[in-house]
Amino acid sequence: LEPATIASFNYIGCYTDLAGGITRSLSSAAFAYDPMTLESCAANCANYDFFGTEYGRECYCGYTLDPTLRATESDCNTPCSGNSSEICGTGARLSVYQNQVYIPPPSPPAHEAQSGNYSWQGCIMEVTNGGPRALSDFAYYNDTMTVEACVNACSAYTYAGIEYGRECYCGNTINPGGGPAPTTDCSFLCPGNSLEYCGAGSRL
After folding, report:
1. So what's the architecture of 5-99 in CATH?
2. How many percent of the chain have pLDDT more than 70?
3. Which segments of the chain belong to CATH 3.50.4?
4. For residue 124, how many other CB atoms are within 10 A of its CB?
5. Alpha-carbon torsion, ordered 101, 11, 48, 22, to 10 deg
């Protein structure tokens, strides 16, 4: 069973995500990491009205939630990767909690135009055809990743890119296959600074 209360959040049910395969039910912020727990997602989403966990390791935050997306309670059955006694949604299903504290909307996150000597070049696709990564010279992982931490780690390289919120890659060239992607694809917030974006799944 889902805990009734996590921090200032109360459990409100299992909800469908990506209805129609397009729009996230909670679209204001996204995090993905191991080990995921309800408590860590609640902390990530403390400044939002709702949080939801999905696939055992993904955390989403939002200010609004469509009540018509309520799903069958038993659909949410995947244990959280960081606590197997907790449920963290399942595929295309969110275990959703609502904040009982009013949260005024903060300043929106942004892609940093400039960080140190590095300037924002856009969102690019990760190489997924079995070749080397888009940026393959150096890799650095940090559960409190920020744009600044990544560019500092990549200071000896031409390019720095962040993926999945916590993965930083460096390179002197962008390898074939790492082409441009829509800016909106890079939607994961940095776990170390929720006002910055840190790529997304297969996006830097």
Report:
1. 3-Layer(bba) Sandwich (3.50)
2. 94
3. 5-99
4. 23
5. -150
The Cα 181–Cα 155 span in angstroms is: 24
Closest CA relative to residue 126, chosen from 172, 160, 163: 163
Tokens of 80: 């959280």
Three-class SS of residue 138? strand
∠ CA(122), CA(106), CA(49), 5° rounding? 110
DSSP state of 96: E
d(CA 56, CA 90): 6
For the chain, list residues with pLDDT below 70.
1-2, 20-22, 102-107
Burial of 83 (0-12, 13-18, 19+ CB in 10 A): middle
Q: What is the pLDDT of residue 103?
A: 66
In this structure, what are the phi and psi dihedrals at residue 137, rounded to the nearest 5 degrees? -85, -30
Phi, psi of 22 (to 5 degrees): -125, -65
- 96 near 50, Cβ under 8 Å? yes
What is the pTM assigned to this prediction?
0.54
Query: Residue 31 to residues 26, 39, 164, 165, 189: CA-CA distances in angstroms?
Result: 12, 13, 8, 6, 7
Contact 82, 34 (CB under 8 A): yes
